[in-house]
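Morning run. Coffee first, then this:
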Amino acid sequence: MFGKKSSDIGIDLGTCNTLIYIRGKGIVLNEPSVVAVERGTRKVVAVGTDAKRMLWKTPEDIIAIRPLRDGVIADLESTEKMMRYFISKALPRYRFVKPRMVIGIPSCITEVERRAVEESAYKSGAREVIVIEESRAAAIGAGIPIFEPAGHMI
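And here it is:
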């Protein structure tokens, strides 16, 4: 039912920037991984480029946060809000049809950190989530046959 209307997206959650790729369109979003929130309520004030402008320049009641450290989620709630904002910006019809997501992660993260990425994606509105190591995604993107018994260096 949703096959032709659903969107398949790829997300690279980076410590500095988050990239969103949509099948058939290419990279549609490349914004800083920063969220500005109110100090007491944790209400989101700005995300991405607008929030980055607030780094080190915010009033006392607003905090600019980088929710990812070393490619791993450090603040689950802020990451979820950031992902939801970026996906809604990249997909205008996002509220009606939930996308399938492939998310790149560092190969050295733990199983708990991997589950945190999956949970964050589902809470931000994904219908289906596939988590893949960034090195494997790079090999696939470069056209390297990953199922053949041959060595390749990435």
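The radius of gyration is 16 Å. Good start to the day.
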